[in-house]
Amino acid sequence: MRLLLIFACMFFALVADSFAQPEPSENNKPGAVGFAVRIMGDDNSTRMLMDFDTKLTINIQYMDQPRRIVIDLPKTVFRFAGGKTAIEPRGLVDLVRHGAISKETTRIVLTLKGAAKVSSQEISELKSGIGHRLILDIDAISQQDFTKLIEEQNKIRGASGAVAKKGDRVFKNKNTNAGKNNGRFTIIIDPGHGGIDGGAVGVGGTKEKTITFAVAVQLKKKLEKIGPFDVVLTRDEDVFVSLRQRVDFTRTAQADLFISIHADSLSQRRVRGSTIYTLSKKASDRLSASLAASENLSDLVAGLALPEEKEVVTDILVELTARETIRFSRHFSGILAGTLKNGITLIKNPQRYAAFGVLKAPEVPSVLLELGYLSNKEDEKLMNSKLWQAKVARLVSEAVLKFFKPRLPLPLQP
Ligand SMILES: [Zn+2]
Q1: Interval between CA 315 and ligand 1 midpoint (Å)
Q2: Cα–chain center distance at 187
Q3: What's the CATH code of the domain at 135?
Q4: Domain encompassing residue 42
Q5: pTM of the predicted structure, to 2 decimals
Q6: pLDDT tens, 32-58?
């Protein structure tokens, strides 16, 4: 009888456990679930309450310009009442973003109205016994104190904040020299944005990060079929990768070509069609300049500090290499524009240039392809179409083949 009871208990525990398991999140591994949230208070003192299905530890850091409180949690999905995932700001908090920053970490970024700090934090079991509540009290402080807070924090951990190194992860398994001098070429496809950084949002709600990833995956398949190309994506899931990491990744891979894919949004809603950008300190026009400026801020969204600008190139060799590389980039941009115009709509003057941070690998020809603009209804509709995505992938892969043609071994004569 006692044995039976033990078995019954074990069975119940198993069943109960399988019910308690949170559903798999975007990375297909279960994480914690945040199921309720509330921010209350005023411009002096604000409280944030968050309920999770499990007890978790958090890590808080501060960022300046704009002032932010950055909260890192173990991988968590948010599912609030009514299926909502957005968090309403209030009091000292002006804007709240959240999302994956790496496979293991989820980040909440609170953009602040003024200088403030977390004066107390506490995690305790909910009275109902079905989870834990995080209580953060945020109080206004002087800008001087905020600056001091950041200085002290940076002394300990460096200014950039910790993020998973995607490049390291992928290239551990890849002999980066394997493709050199054997007639094969390494091409890096860079799906713009990801994780906490969703990129632009379309008039109909489409997220840029979703479009860029869908096209990147199709392009990889097409390229691998069409020529001797080893194709690697800078992210292979919905995860944040900083601009610096995308560039480092490309350099480490000793890539032969880098294609960053975007679908940004413009204030001029009528503007539509694809644009191909290459790097230049001076932008070709105002639209390109403002697009590059906002694109370069994408690390801010994820709660990273802006990179220190080390624009002064001291190494003359690097400078020369970069100049030579830009010539190749422009050459590819020309081929790409010529190929794309046979199948899709291009913007007026489709070959433009601006100071995009992601195009700065000095030795790798790099372009940024804006597929279209999510601020335009027709573009948004097209970019969501699998057929259109496949067409773009085919056209881009044809352009890549044309670009490498002079360096490919001659086909055998019949
Ligand atoms: Zn973008």
Answers
A1: 30
A2: 19
A3: 2.60.40.3500
A4: 22-157
A5: 0.70
A6: 999 999 999 999 999 999 999 998 888
